[in-house]
Amino acid sequence: MSTVADKLAKKSTSKTSSKQVRLRLVYVDFWSAVKLSFLAAVALAIVTVVATFLVFMVLSTTGLIDRVDELFVAFSNGDFSIKQFLNLPQVMAFAAIVAILNLIVITVLGAVVAGIYNVMVKVTGGLLVGFTSN
User: Fold this and answer.
1) How far does Cα 132 stand from its chain's mean position?
2) pTM attached to this predicted model
């Protein structure tokens, strides 16, 4: 009795003729590039906030922040404490601001790159891409 694996093995041994096609990318849709760059920026923003939280928690749990604070207090004769500026709400607010700025910059850069590519296609003729059907 034939199994599914035997049937798949028979199919893989038969050679099919694959046709190769060469296409030229001559236009990148502006709104598609903006949407794609926005989604990539959202993913990067989430990674930024989560990574900042995790790094802060590791530094706080290991006591490294306390040791650095003791060093700053010793050098400044008690006038300056780094714990005033380096607590969880302030660190997360800073991470959120950086994430929002990155979101804006990456989205704008995606739009600019799409525009520049569309202008450069007029000079270079576009990007040649090869496809095959397997």
Assistant:
1) 29
2) 0.73
Of residues 101, 122, 129, the one with CA closest to residue 27: 122
Which stretches of the chain are assigned E, i.e. beta strand? Answer: 20-25, 127-132
Q: How far apart are CA 95 and CA 89, in angstroms?
A: 10
Rounded to a whole number of angstroms, the CA Rg of the chain reads 27
Q: How far apart are CA 92 and CA 96, in angstroms?
A: 6
CB within 8 Å of 38: residues ≥ 6 apart: 103, 106, 107, 110
What is the identity of the amino acid at 64? Answer: L
Render pLDDT for 71-102 as a digit per residue (tens, 0 to 9). 888 888 877 878 888 889 999 999 999 999 99
Report phi then psi at 80, rounded to 5.
-125, 125
**Dist CA 121 CA 100 (whole Å):** 32
* 53 Cβ contact list (under 8 Å, min separation 6): 92, 95
Instruction: Indicate the residue type of 44.
Output: L
CA 106 distance to own-chain centroid: 10
